[in-house]
Design a protein that fits this description.
By secondary structure, the protein is mainly alpha-helical. It has helices at about 5-35, 40-45, 55-70, 75-90, 90-110, 130-145. The chain has one domain. InterPro entries: DUF212 (IPR003832). This is Divergent PAP2 family protein. It comes from Zooshikella ganghwensis.
Length: about 150
């Protein structure tokens, strides 16, 4: 189960970056397809939406650390970080998403003549399904990296 440390460190990093890239590109393509226009900024840096790239990255980190090092202090810390990130994506960031929608609606109804510079971003947090798909992408990338020995 344990590998040469330098190889496992590279493979852990590669699985994380691969998971993030797959999730972010999938998110961008789905967004562009739904909007029927290409938005390169969202394609690369988009927040919220399907799937969660944060969840994909940290789950790839947690699972690949476990696959390469077994049950260790490092893998336990990685799983704790994953759980905190998943909770944040579905909790705090989703609440911020709801608040942004409410504030934007208040601005439209209460101040129709005011021209605010730009509305708040409403696509910040994630639904549980979006986080679950991100975790699955991370798990698949971690498993693929661990099999590529």
């Amino acid at each position: 189960m344990l590998m040469n440390t330098s190889n496992s460190e590279y493979m852990i990093a590669i699985s994380c970056v691969t998971a993030w890239c797959i999730a972010q590109l999938t998110k961008g393509v789905l967004f562009c397809r739904a909007q029927q226009r290409i938005n390169l900024q969202y394609l690369i840096f988009g927040q919220g939406g399907m799937p969660s790239s944060h969840s994909a990255f940290v789950s790839a980190l947690a699972f690949s650390t476990f696959f390469y090092q077994g049950l260790s202090t490092t893998s336990i810390i990685a799983f704790a970080l994953m759980l905190i990130t998943l909770r944040d994506a579905m909790g705090v960031r989703l609440a911020a998403n709801d608040h942004a929608k409410a504030i934007n609606q208040l601005n439209k109804t209460c101040f129709p003549s005011k021209n605010f510079s730009s509305p708040l971003c409403e696509l910040i947090g994630h639904q549980p399904k979006e986080v679950a798909i991100g975790v699955m992408i991370g798990l698949i990338c971690a498993a693929g990296a661990s099999l590529w020995r």
